[in-house]
Amino acid sequence: MFKILGFLLLFAASAQAQPLGAGRYVLDTASCHRCDTGWIPDYYSKRIKYPLSSEALVRKVRAAVVFPKNFKGSGYVTVKFVVNCEGEKNCYHIYETDGRYQPIHFAKEITEPLLQFVKQLGPWPRATGKYRDYFAFLAFKIKDGVITNIIP
Amino acid sequence: MLSRILFLSLCLPTLLAAQSQHDSAEHFFDSRIAHLNYNSAEWQSAADSALMIDSTVGFIWQLRSMPYFKDGDYGSGMQYLPKAAQYNPVSSLPYMAFMKCIFMKDYEGAIRDFQESKQKGYGIGLMDHSYDFFLGICYMELDSLNLAQQYLQASIAATVKHPGENWVHYNEWFYMGMLWYKKHQYPLAIPYFEMSLKQYDGYPPALFYKAQALAQKGNKTEALQLLEQAKVNIAKGIHSTEDNDFYVNYPYTIYAGDVEELITVLGKK
């Protein structure tokens, strides 16, 4: 019976729309400022990361972003975006997870400054080759109200 | 004896059926994903369908989680990875520990999982390193430097014992250097950075932090020379050869921006 259900699911799934990226959220890239159409690869497919260490980025974000004093939350705020052929970032999306890896929505006072921090970072490296737009992200790990790490 | 035979004969069909279901799920999954990108909806649907056939196939849960971690969506990834560790603990528990340590920087969680893996005898290492190596990194990042030293030294000692000092990974030397660097023991850090460079000539993080240690000792000239070398090597594409380097930065991975910044700082002094 499970085999039958499995096959039925597969046939149903193949008829669905295709989300871009693996996340729970379908990223609407139609309005993004891209250079090419079609598939958008991830940063790792293009062998690209932001040319500054995670440690240096943490120092920068701690200097730039001050959370409300009463904020003692923990978790991850991931800012995902598309980098186009000009190295410009756009088409932002945010994932939020609490310290136990459960869905959460942090207050705007938490996510908005982090989004602005990502936006003001200098140009991302440009991709070459067949697909010149690519997905990238910065994830901020927060522990007890303090940014402790930036990934990747 | 007769009762045992009777018991086995009653259980055997169930065991065989369970194995058959397990094999069916694995075969189904393997046959469907052959030409699919793991970020695609079809790949994910194939995994979900295989899990409908048999929800206890740990490695499918593990693979199902993987795209999310590479996407920065740790919440979604962690809906699947603990299931992998539940059904296939021998390989998936250490893997989950590794993901917590390197991908999610959840060092407390990684320590728990690595310690459990060691206690239960689930292997001795993964991704080219011992569990002690990763425990050393976790404790170092949590600023428990004495515990970090204990585990990093144990990891290196085990390799020195067998198969030999020349087999110690360049990053094991590098992180021992970082440990002493973080303790502000720069004369003790430098030899380890040099051991790292002996294993991997021109490795930029070892050059960078050796330069930092030399600068702390007042040797600015040599520090700047090393930084220029690091800059050239980064431009040449010399970087960590860790398998997951393309997805995530191991601690103290450095880039051109870091080198430029330090050159500027040292130049002003």
Can you give a write-up of this model?
The complex is a heterodimer of chains A (152) and B (269). Chain A is α+β, with helices and mostly antiparallel strands. Chain A has one domain. Chain A has helices spanning 2-13, 54-64, 108-120, and strands at 75-83, 89-98, 134-143, 146-151. Chain A has a 4-stranded antiparallel β-sheet, covered by helices on one side. Chain A is elongated. Chain B has helices at 2-33, 41-53, 58-69, 74-87, 89-103, 107-119, 131-141, 145-161, 170-182, 186-199, 204-216, 220-236, 256-268; strands at residues 125-126, 129-130. The longest helix of chain B is centred in the N-terminal third of the chain and has 32 residues, at 2-33. Chain B is elongated. The chains are: A alpha+beta (152), B mainly alpha (269). Chains A and B meet through α1, α2, β1, β2 and β3 of A and α1, α2, α4 and α13 of B.
What distance lies between the first and last C-alpha atoms of chain B, to the nearest angstrom?
85 Å
Task: Give the oligomer, counting copies of the same chain as homo and different chains as hetero.
Answer: heterodimer
Full CATH superfamily name of the largest domain in chain B: Tetratricopeptide repeat domain
What are the segments of chain A in which pLDDT stays under 50 over at least 5 consecutive residues?
Answer: 2-26
Mind summarizing the main beta sheet of chain B? 2 strands, antiparallel
Major interchain interface with per-chain residue totals = A-B, 47 and 48 residues
CATH topology of the largest domain in chain B: Serine Threonine Protein Phosphatase 5, Tetratricopeptide repeat
Strand content of chain B: under 5%
Strand order of the largest sheet of chain A: 2-1-3-4
Strand and helix order of chain B: HHHHHHEEHHHHHHH
Major β-sheet strand ordering of chain B: 1-2
Question: How many domains of chain A?
Answer: 1
Number of continuous helical runs of chain A:
3
Strand content of chain A: 15-25%
Rg of chain B (C-alpha, Å):
23 Å
